[in-house]
Specification:
Strand content: 15-25%
GO molecular function: CoA-transferase activity
InterPro entries: CoA-transferase_III_domain, CoA-Trfase_fam_III, CoA-Trfase_III_dom3_sf, CoA-Trfase_III_dom_1_sf
CATH topology of the largest domain: Rossmann fold
Number of strands: 13
Radius of gyration: 26 Å
CATH superfamily of the largest domain: Crotonobetainyl-coa:carnitine coa-transferase, domain 1
Order of helices and strands: EHEEEHEHEHEHHHEHHEEHHHHEHHEEHH
Largest sheet: 6 strands, parallel
Number of helices: 17
Protein name: CoA transferase
Shape: elongated
Keywords: Transferase
Strand order of the largest sheet: 5-2-1-6-7-8
Length: 409
């Protein structure tokens, strides 16, 4: 079955996370992705460990879990971008590509003649995505930055974490590199839109895409940002307490935690019966959604005591029978043995050059006509250098050996 992006070639000049994730998702969708890496060291994220993958003999490889998370369905080609011969290799690939992805600091690739202005003259159909910390404009455009910096500057930390008056309260960063991950989704959307525009326009011209990590973080403030903009008021951090109803939060059970949300009065009546406290449904303090929110500080201790009286499994079963939205607070070992998650095919096992059984987290998109069933292991450093030079660019064996001898690849 043909995948949605078969026939699209992506030149991936990016490193670490946001850019590689864009390329990986395009690869999942069927694009051919050629990843350019620095000879010797490769993508910076290869060293972001431990943990590292162990080979079949139990020895540690150089493949970090971080790198493996963002580089499946790609071909790895090592190129020295500082070498003129290496730059010519990249230009040759760009001439035959549909998409270029890069996340170098502003102006870096222009020094090598690998910026959009240079490459689009060779290939006007090129869609060129640049991901930077602060974007291509503004006084901070040339500054470096990492995920946590943009979580802080973009407001994510301000809306995350427990209230200041609680132990451990205060602005809190996400446990994930959430800005990179969110930015990658904006990047994929932008590339697909630009490809669609190119293929529908009479001249078939590509375009340049400028995406900033900081902009992406601000954009994903969503309703929390809009609530501030229309009210001028900074809403308090709520930790694990939701803002759309009550109860809507995490509760400790005798052996773990669960999360639930009671979103309306019908659910509230069923909820009270499910936990064996039907009298709460008639309590005037909690009878209406607004009153439950206003009296949250009275209601929450009652529910906390109740949930601590039994196990997480017991309460989740009772809540499921009552059709109350709820779920466990899973540790990662519980996530990857969760029956529902496994039934959705969210784990794949592939053969890796260093390991016969490499687990991968699946792409969550499920198409009816073009299922995403391509899962190739993230490449080892330079694994496909000869193949790309010979099969795609048409270099001879002598030319390839000459490039290697000069350090260009």
């Amino acid at each position: 079955m043909t995948l949605p992006l078969e026939g699209i070639r992506v030149l991936d000049l990016s490193r670490v996370l946001a850019g590689p994730l864009v390329a990986q998702m395009l690869g999942d969708l069927g694009a051919e992705v050629i990843k350019i890496e620095k000879p010797g060291d490769g993508d910076d994220s290869r060293s972001y460990g431990p943990p590292f993958l162990h080979d079949t003999a139990g020895a540690r490889t150089r493949e970090s879990g971080f790198y493996l998370s963002a580089n499946r369905n790609k071909r790895s080609l090592t190129v020295n971008l500082g070498s003129e011969s290496g730059q010519e290799v990249v230009r040759a690939i760009a001439k035959q590509s549909d998409v270029v992805i890069e996340n170098f600091r502003v102006g870096t690739l222009a020094k090598f003649g690998l910026d959009y202005d240079s490459l689009s003259k060779l290939n006007p159909r090129l869609v060129y995505l640049s991901i930077t910390g602060y974007g291509q404009t503004g006084r901070m455009a040339h500054r470096p930055g990492y995920d946590a910096i943009f979580q802080a500057a973009g407001g994510h930390m301000a809306v995350s974490g427990a209230p200041d008056n609680l132990p451990g309260g205060g602005p809190t960063r996400s446990g994930l590199s959430i800005v990179d991950i969110l930015t990658s989704h904006y990047g994929v959307t932008a590339v697909l839109a630009a490809l669609s525009h190119r293929d529908r326009s009479p001249e078939g011209k590509g375009q340049y895409i400028d995406i900033a990590l900081l902009d992406s973080m601000v954009a994903t403030l969503s309703h929390r940002g809009m609530q501030y903009l229309i009210s001028g008021k900074i809403s308090p951090r709520r930790g694990n307490v939701g803002g759309g109803g009550s109860p809507s939060q995490a509760f400790h059970c005798s052996d773990g935690q669960l999360v639930l949300t009671v979103g309306n009065n019908t659910q509230w009546l069923r909820f009270c019966d499910a936990i064996g406290e039907p009298q709460l449904a008639n309590d005037e303090r909690f009878a209406a959604p607004t009153s439950r929110i206003e009296n949250r500080e009275l209601l929450t201790p009652l529910l906390e005591e109740k949930f601590m009286s039994n196990t997480k499994a017991y309460w989740l079963d009772a809540l499921e029978k009552a059709d109350i939205p709820s779920g466990p607070v899973n540790e990662l070992d519980e996530v990857f043995r969760d029956e529902q998650i496994l039934s959705r095919g969210m784990l794949k096992s592939v053969k890796h050059p260093e390991s016969a059984d490499l687990p991968l987290i699946s792409n969550p998109i499920q198409f009816s006509e073009t299922p995403l069933d391509r899962y190739e292991a993230p490449p080892t450093l330079g694994e496909h250098t000869d193949m790309v030079l010979k099969d795609i660019l048409g270099y001879t064996d002598d030319q390839i050996e000459s490039l290697k001898a000069s350090g260009a690849v």
